[in-house]
Amino acid sequence: MQTRFLLSSALRRPGWPRIAHTTPRRSIHVDCVEKHAGTGDERVAKYQAALFVDNVFPLKVSRLDIRPYLVLRNEAAMRKKVAGMLPSELPHGARVSDIDPHFRDGGSLVHFTFTGNTGLDAARQTAQDVVSAVDAHVRAQSGRRWLWLESARALAVRGVPFCEDIVRMLPSKRVRVEFCGPPLDMEQIFDEFRAFGRILDIEMAQRDAQHAVVHFTRLRGATSARNCVHGDVVGATRLRLAYEREDREMVLVQWAK
């Protein structure tokens, strides 16, 4: 049995203020990859972080969906497309270290490195500055995209993405969230996921209380959350995300929404 929270209606009663853009910002995931950063100065370190650029490629919504193959046919072309969307220079001397297209999810991970003073708090702020700069840039490139009206956006990767290309795991607006640790409550889940898009409802499992299902109103919210939140740690709980198959909507209707 599951408890469902219908957010579109329950959290937007007449006269209530809108909730959009009021949730707290979660921290970007940063790794220290080299102490002293080759300088011999113990106060300096090299860090790595990642962002996800969404709405770059058509979302693959069915195994029979041929739209992605009409746009790009090889990984080199996809990497080139993503690289062309990024600014020529990043803040704080950051450099792109890898571009990892996630064709099925319509976007790409962009890994970047930078050098800064030791201390994760300062490193997270530097990484967030990079994400903000890339986000502003890709949004400004909206006139250069091909087939769709929405602008791309860059989002901070909070966890450790699970990179897989299992054919049957197609994108879905319903994302299953497993709790590896104490379960999160509805408010914590909402705060964690609202930044990626509007949420239709949250279904909380009652039998084992170790998972929940977040139902986004649009696919791009789900795909962005899947790439940015998997592996994130909230308190003492690590989150694992997977798409849940939707049986109630036709594939093309789901994409159109």
Describe the structure.
The structure is a single chain. The protein contains seven helices and eleven strands. The chain has 257 residues and is α+β, with helices and mostly antiparallel strands. The strands form two sheets. Strands 1-8-9-7-11-10 form a six-stranded antiparallel β-sheet.
Question: How would you summarize what this structure contains?
Answer:
The chain has 257 residues and is of the alpha+beta class. The chain is built from 7 helices and 11 strands. The chain has a 6-stranded antiparallel β-sheet. Strands 2, 3, 4, 5 and 6 form a 5-stranded antiparallel β-sheet that branches.
Strand tally, please?
A: 11
Largest sheet: 6 strands, antiparallel
The number of helical elements comes to 7
How would you name the oligomeric state of the polypeptide chains in this document? single chain
Task: From the structure above, extract its key features.
257 residues, six-stranded antiparallel β-sheet, single chain, alpha+beta, 7 helices
